[in-house]
TrEMBL record:
Pfam families tied to this protein: LuxC (PF05893)
This protein's UniProt keywords: NADP
Superkingdom per UniProt: Bacteria
Protein name: Acyl-CoA reductase
SUPFAM superfamilies to which the protein is assigned, alphabetical: ALDH-like (SSF53720)
Listed InterPro entries: Ald_DH/histidinol_DH (IPR016161), CoA_reduct_LuxC (IPR008670)
A single GO molecular function term of this UniProt record: acyl-CoA dehydrogenase activity
Gene Ontology terms describing biological process: bioluminescence
Length: 353
């Protein structure tokens, strides 16, 4: 790890700090560095994030924080970086344009830039602006060497050497043009799919419900489409999904559900629904909120080839061994540090710039 060791340690300490904020509740622990200075302040930032963005419920924010607490351990970080030589890195300034669809969605890029020894210039989404600057401040307290290496801006990006930008397919075209003279990773819309055979256990379908409903389905790792065999019976699918029915009591979700249902009914589309989730046969991958698309397949071989052709549209495939990198049921929103968005290895990119 060489001279970057202090950064790894800082992030491991951040993991300890975040471990106080879990979906089971928020509980102050002993022996967390600078806790008296930061614990109450971070509780306040969570409250602000929640008030600012109706999709960021406390449970979803805590789910994201818990995920990062589990990942940011000394062992995990070392395992992730084991095969890279970080000592040769000449620090450059890397700009990150972050999305704001789920809490801390740009954190992996932020971590990757700093842990490879570069300086980071962050442009956040207005939807997700309360959590990361506070955590950056915590990192600077743990490792004062990081001071000056982290900058946040709301202005036009200037004076940087490379860029990682995440946006919609439209903004991606703009990014590609705008950053054409800089080394870049430009990410566009992707969606995740699940392949069902009809032999799934109740536990697997139960886990799949987490892949569908977590973050209201707003993440690119959320399952927005199912591939099912001909004559698939959706009864057991709907039975298992039912435990999520309280989601319809949340206003933003309910509004989207009502709106999309009205559109489908007026267009006389066929769809099945259970009062809080609609499923509709559709070739597309990106389904609206409260809707999951489905498509029939004739054979798994044929489907394999289709998924391969469409791989640039797909973030995760949930299946039982159908694709090389398939994701287990229930695990789409629990990636490892070495699971890269769009399958582009951010660390390799950062070591080459």
């Amino acid at each position: 790890m060489g001279n970057k060791y202090y950064i790894t340690t800082a992030f491991a300490e951040l993991g300890q700090f975040l471990s106080q904020f879990t979906t089971k509740g928020i509980e102050k622990k002993e022996n967390v560095l600078h806790n008296d200075l930061f614990f109450d302040g971070f509780k306040h930032q969570i409250k602000l994030a929640k008030e600012h963005n109706g999709w960021f419920t406390e449970n979803n924010i805590l789910f994201a924080l818990e995920g990062w607490a589990n990942l940011l351990t000394e062992n995990n970080l070392k395992q992730w970086l084991l095969s890279y030589n970080l000592n040769e890195v000449k620090p450059k300034k890397v700009a990150i344009i972050m999305a704001g669809n789920i809490p801390l969605v740009g954190f992996h890029d932020f971590l990757s830039v700093l842990i490879t020894g570069h300086d980071v210039l962050v442009k956040q989404s207005s939807n997700d602006k309360h959590l990361l600057p506070f955590l950056a401040k915590y990192l600077e307290y743990v490792s004062p060497e990081l001071k000056g290496k982290i900058t946040f801006t709301e202005d036009k990006l200037q004076d940087f050497d490379a860029v990682i930008a995440t946006g919609s397919n439209n903004t991606a075209r703009y990014f590609e043009y705008y950053f054409k003279n800089k080394p870049s990773i430009i990410r566009q819309n992707r969606n995740s799919v699940a392949v069902l055979t009809g032999d799934e256990t109740e536990d697997q379908l139960n886990a799949l419900s987490e892949d569908i409903f977590r973050y209201y389905g707003l993440g690119c790792r959320n399952v927005s489409k199912l591939f099912v065999p001909k004559d698939y019976n959706f009864d057991s699918f709907f039975n298992v999904m039912y435990k999520w029915h309280p989601i319809i009591e949340e206003a933003k979700y309910a509004n989207n559900y009502d709106y999309n249902k009205a559109v489908y009914l007026m267009s006389e589309f066929d769809m099945l629904e259970n009062g809080f989730l609609m499923i509709k046969e559709d070739q597309s991958y990106a389904s609206p909120i409260a809707t999951v698309f489905y498509e029939y397949y004739d054979s798994l071989e044929q489907l394999q080839s289709k998924l391969n052709i469409d791989k640039d549209l797909i973030q995760c495939v949930v299946s039982k061994g159908l694709t090389e990198n398939d994701v287990d049921f229930g695990m789409t929103q629990k990636p490892q540090l070495w699971d890269y968005a769009d399958d582009i290895n951010t660390i390799e990119f950062l070591l080459k710039i």
